[in-house]
Amino acid sequence: MTRILINGQPQNSLSAADRAVQYGDGIFTTIKVADGKPEHWPLHYQRLIKGLQILGIDFDSWDKVQDAINGLADEAQNAVLKLLISRGQGGRGYQTPKTQQPLWILTLHPMPEHYQQWQEQGVELGISEIQLARQPKLAGIKHLNRLEQVLVKLHAPEQGPEDMLVCDTQNMMVECSAANLFWQTNGLWYTPDLHHAGVAGVMRQRVLEHFEGRGCPVIQVQAPPTALTQAQAVFICNSLMGIVPVKRFGQAEFAIDKIRQLAREIL
Fold it and tell me: If 86 and its partner were Cys, which of 26, 149, 173, 178 is the partner (CB 3.0–4.6 Å)?
């Protein structure tokens, strides 16, 4: 099923001089396609715009991107689209070029099969030995420098928890290997504060808006992993997996029926 479009044209090669290759100079997002429609595109678009502004990338090909997304989504029906935007070529060393020619790549992939099982049965969380560096300038956006997440996956046990909780260098919870984290304690919902590190996911934003609309906004906090041991319910989420209950973290166990009901309300 995999398809690759570069600047809207079918091809699978990229110049070695592109700054995405040289420096990870760009951003990306991953979009779920359901029944031929790209889900939550407005939220993906908002995060892309924010990331481009932070990195100072001038990009104006949105009409072509939208047409390509809609075309591949209609063709695939149920799949995953990944949109990557690079600053393009040019510049001396780290210095960005005065005239930018951004490049965009759209790829189509099968939907991961295990997410439905996760939604139904829940997952166990371990805790990663890899910690995320604090960098407020880049916190929240989904830039191309994802070596920390690569290390999280590399150092995860082959036989063990389905996903890993990741902290920053101050031992404050940030996220999981590729998902955001929420927990409920004494009737209040919490999620890690992402002002220092982490990715502000599209599904995370959807969850925040849901609770805000109900008049009980989620509290964004810096908290150590021990906070989960006092929780009554925990879930992880991203745009592909949706909302997945956590059934166990260390010695703490959580009921997953409440999370299934919450997922039905939000999704």
Answer: 26
